[in-house]
Amino acid sequence: MSENLERVQCLILGSGPAGYTTAIYTCRADLKTVIYEGPITGGQLMQTTEIENFPGYPQGVHGGQMMQDIRQQAERFGVEFRMGSIVEVDTTARPFRVKSDMGDELLADTIVVATGASARWLGVKGEEQFKGGGVSACATCDGYFFRGKDVAVVGGGDTACEDATYLSHLCNKVYLIVRRDVLRASKAMQHRVLNTPNIEVLWNTQTKELFGEVDGFMATLQGAVLFDSKTNEERTINIDGFFEAIGNVPNTAIFKDKLEMDEAGYIITKPKSTATSVPGIFAAGDCQDRLFRQAIIAAGSGATAGMEVERFLMENA
Predict the structure, then answer these.
(1) Distance (Å, whole) CA 226 – CA 121
(2) 288 and 273 in one domain?
(3) For the chain (length 317 residues), average pLDDT per consecutive 10?
């Protein structure tokens, strides 16, 4: 029966900057807080090599090290970490009844969804091998490391065009690899790309393979093999960076038809708030932010969620 189940005041789903920061705030408010860390402890940043745009690290920091630091800070205040993911949530009544992929069940007075989003990848040969060694899904995060070098961006939408434009200010040359013969981006973004001298658009082009140098655990991208679907010809470009801008998938499937979402599956929150369409459930980080997807913004929304959880519990005591 439900009265025999463990009950927590705040249940956090996900262990990225949003989830860990939420825990820092709820635990400092003396709320019993449990985090289910998800498939990757520390989230996507565990796969990022160097981070230079998060405050407090003047010399930069490895993504894994930064997440370990934030985790230890949350742990200091008493959060309980658990392996695994929440796979079922009953949103019809509070406290919310949830079940993990390990089969355990518990009741939660509030839930903070901080499950993040996953980058879409091409799935081509060499892609996995060179992740962190030249292959990236975030130009804003990693572009600075390719100053003065040649890079490529894959995609034809606004994000790809924004990434190409951003990289054009840092890099020697930017190839924009577009699968079709048109761009899906807004007219303003198209105009900007097509009028930037060091951006070369490769139309009707797909990536077949990425290659480079591998030395033990170190892999360094050196180029890409491309295929022109109009001429049926292959060509090789020499590049140091390969940025994929073909979209992200929010990790929100378990809340489909339970929380209000946009057409892409990002959770919709109230203006200037992390509150969702269900009272007592909050969303922070990339699972509700399809625009910026930055660690510092995720952490900020986690702080907001933590304070809103405390306020909600006080008002509904």
Answers:
(1) 16
(2) yes
(3) 82 97 98 95 78 91 92 97 96 97 95 94 96 91 94 94 94 98 93 97 98 92 97 97 94 97 97 98 96 92 98 96
142 is catalytic: yes
Catalytic residue among 10, 27, 141, 161: 141
Which of 244, 261, 294 is the last residue in one of the domains?
244
Q: How far apart are CA 289 and CA 267, in angstroms?
A: 8
Residues 12 and 109 in one domain: yes
Active-site residue, from 142, 150, 163, 289: 142
**Global model pTM greater than 0.85:** no
Asked if residue 231 and residue 130 are part of one domain, the reply reads yes
Catalytic residue among 10, 27, 109, 138: 138
Active site residue 109: no
Residues 179 and 156 in one domain: yes
CATH code, domain carrying 12: 3.50.50.60
Q: Answer yes or no: 141 catalytic.
A: yes
| 186 in the same domain as 134 | yes
Q: Are residues 206 and 273 in the same domain?
A: no
Across the chain, where does the E strand assignment appear? 6-13, 33-36, 50-51, 61-62, 80-82, 86-90, 96-100, 105-113, 117-119, 135-136, 150-154, 173-177, 199-202, 205-215, 218-228, 233-238, 241-244, 248-250, 281-283
Domain that holds residue 256: 2-118+249-315
Cis amide bond preceding 95, omega within 30: yes
